[in-house]
Amino acid sequence: MTKIASIFDLETLARKRLPAVLFDYIHGGSEQQLTVQRNLDDMRALALRQHSLRNVASRDTAATMAGDRARIPLAVGPTGLAGLAWPNGECEAARAAAAFGVPYCLSTCSIDSIEDVADATKDADQPFWFQLYLMKDKQVNERLMRRALDAGCSALVLTIDLHVQGKRWADEKDGLAVPPRLTPKNVLDMLVHPRWLASMAGSRRHTFGNLEHEIEAGKSVGSLSKWIEAQFDPTFDAGTVRWVRAQWPRKLILKGVMHPDDARSALELGADAIIVSNHGGRQLDGAPSSISVLPAIAEAVGGRIEVLFDGGIRTGGDIVKALGLGAHACLSGRACLYGLAAKGYDGVLCALDLFEQELHDCMMLAGLASVHDIPPGVVTAQPPLGRAR
Ligand code: GLV
Fold it and tell me: What is this structure's pTM?
C-alpha cells in the first residue's frame, strides 16, 4: 500500500507489521468487546446537520487542553506498550506530537521511561503529560509523581477505572507478557514479522521503563506484568483522588469518568479536567459508549471543569461530533498507536495530519468556522426518515 487515505489504512498496516500478540493487545478490548464496538457504532450513528450558505474560508481549530496549546483539539492519549510497537515508540510518538503541536500523554505502562521522553522532547516547546495508574504501594506512586514533576510534565492524568484489569481474552490466549512470552506460537509469529523483529533490535528498552526498578531485586523481568496487575488497587475511591490532589501541584485530569455523579465529584475534588472515557472498551465490558454519556456529563458540570473525551475517534468528523455534544477537546489512543505501529514517528504525524485535514473538511462541509462554536443541533441522532427539519 502506498497511499494512506485514512486511519483505517494505518490500522491495516499496523496489523501487517506487528506480531498478533501485539496487534491484538492494541486493537482489542475486554471480554466480548461489546463496549469497543459501541464506541465505534454510536459515533458512526450520529448525524451532522450542515448549513451550506456560509463562508468557511477561514477556520479556527486551535485550542488549549489543560492549559497546553493544541493545534487541533486532540491530544495523543496514553497507551501501554507503545515501545513494543515501534523501537523507542513512546519517544517517537511524543516527538511527533510535539512537532505537530498537540499534547502527548505518556502511560505508566510505557516501555520508554518518563526520563527518556523528557530527554527526547527537551527541545520542544510542548510539555508532555503523564498518566498515572495508582499502585497499592504508595511509595511507587510518590516516586512516579516526583519523576513526572522533575521531568516537567504539565499535567497528571489519573486513571480512575482500573480497580482491576479488564480481562482481555485475546491477550490471555496469546500469552501477552512484557516482554512477550517466548511460546512456540509467539516465536513463530515474530519470525513471520521480520520487519518488526529487526526493528526492535534497535530499541533501547524491552520492558516497562517506569516500573522496572520497582520490582524486588532478583525477580525475573517476565514477572513484571504480573507484579503490575497485582498492584492495581480495588480500594481506589474519592479519598485516593484527594490524596493525589494533595501531592500533585500541577494540572490534574481524571480519566475514566462515565457518570455525571463522578464528574461532579471530580469538581469537588479539585480536578482541573475530566476525560469522558471507557478506556477504549478495555475495562468494563458492557459499559455504554463514551459518546452516549458525554452530553449528560457535560450538562452536569456546566462548563465548570474542562470536559475532554475519548472513545471511537477515527476521523476529524468524529472530533466535531464530540465537540458538538459538549467536549472541549478529545484524545486519541488507538488511532495514533496504529500510526506508530505502522510507521513510527512518520505514522503518528500521518495520523495527526489526517485528523487535521478531515477536521477542516468536516467544518467546511458542515458550515462551521470555529471548533469553539458548534451550535446545538449540528450533531444529532440520525432523524427518523422524513422527520429532519
Ligand atoms: C492499558 O491501559 C490498557 O488498557 O492495556
Answer: 0.96
